[in-house]
């Protein structure tokens, strides 16, 4: 099976040894993605920004949001669950992937209130 690493813009990718996303066959795995560039925004804005970064990574891999089958949301403040969930619903309300939302003690950047992972399955599309 062919593997395609999809780079992002993080300067830590080569240092830590990760890719923004990896496509293997018809599956795309998107790494934990934080709201880089919207660090000081509220939880809803951070979530929207994070999901746009994820959308871009998916598109580079030949996928779309409609192909997402799973998301994982990590929150640092339990009270943000509704704001984060509402934005998740804006992006995935009709797609309805399997989703998990958990509260964690901290994320890599202390200003981040949310980090999201995603997995997509591309229906019958060849790897380019």
List the helices and strands and how they pair.
Layout: E1 3-6, H1 12-17, E2 21-24, E3 27-33, H2 43-60, E4 68-75, H3 81-92, E5 98-103, E6 114-121
Parallel strand pairs: 4-5
Antiparallel strand pairs: 1-2, 2-3, 3-6, 4-6
Helix pairs in contact: 2-3
In short:
With 128 residues, this protein is α+β, with helices and mostly antiparallel strands. It has three helices and six strands.
Could you explain the architecture of this structure?
Helix content is about 30%, strand content about 30%. It has about 130 residues and is of the alpha+beta class. A six-stranded mixed sheet has the order 1-2-3-6-4-5, covered by helices on one side. Strand 2 and strand 3 (about 25-35) form a beta hairpin. Helix 2 (about 45-60) packs parallel to helix 3 (about 80-90). The chain is globular and about 40 Å long.
Key features?
6-stranded mixed sheet; single chain; 28% helix; alpha+beta; 6 strands; 128 residues; globular
In the CATH scheme, the class would be Alpha Beta
Query: Into which percent range does the helicity of residues fall?
Result: 25-40%
The quaternary structure here is: single chain
Count of DSSP helices? 3
Uncertain ranges = none
Specify the overall morphology: globular
Task: Kindly identify the CATH topology.
Answer: 60s Ribosomal Protein L30, Chain: A
Question: How would you name the CATH homologous superfamily?
Answer: RutC-like
Number of strands: 6
Largest sheet: spatial strand order: 1-2-3-6-4-5
Distance between the termini: 13 Å
Q: Give a quick account of the main beta sheet: strands, pairing sense, barrel closure.
A: 6 strands, mixed
Assign the structural class, choosing from mainly alpha, mainly beta, alpha/beta, alpha+beta, or little secondary structure.
alpha+beta
CATH architecture: 2-Layer Sandwich
Count of the separate structural domains? 1
Overall pLDDT: 95
């Amino acid at each position: 099976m062919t593997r395609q690493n999809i780079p992002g813009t993080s300067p830590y990718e080569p240092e830590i040894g990760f890719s923004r996303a990896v496509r293997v066959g018809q599956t795309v795995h998107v790494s934990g993605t934080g709201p880089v560039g919207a660090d000081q925004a509220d939880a809803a804005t951070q979530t929207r920004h994070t999901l746009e970064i994820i959308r871009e990574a998916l598109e580079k891999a030949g996928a779309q949001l409609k192909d997402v089958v799973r998301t994982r949301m990590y929150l640092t403040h339990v009270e943000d669950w509704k704001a984060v969930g509402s934005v998740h619903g804006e992006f995935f309300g009709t797609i309805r992937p399997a989703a998990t939302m958990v509260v964690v003690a901290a994320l890599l950047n202390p200003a981040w209130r949310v980090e999201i992972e995603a997995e997509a399955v591309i229906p019958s599309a060849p790897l380019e």
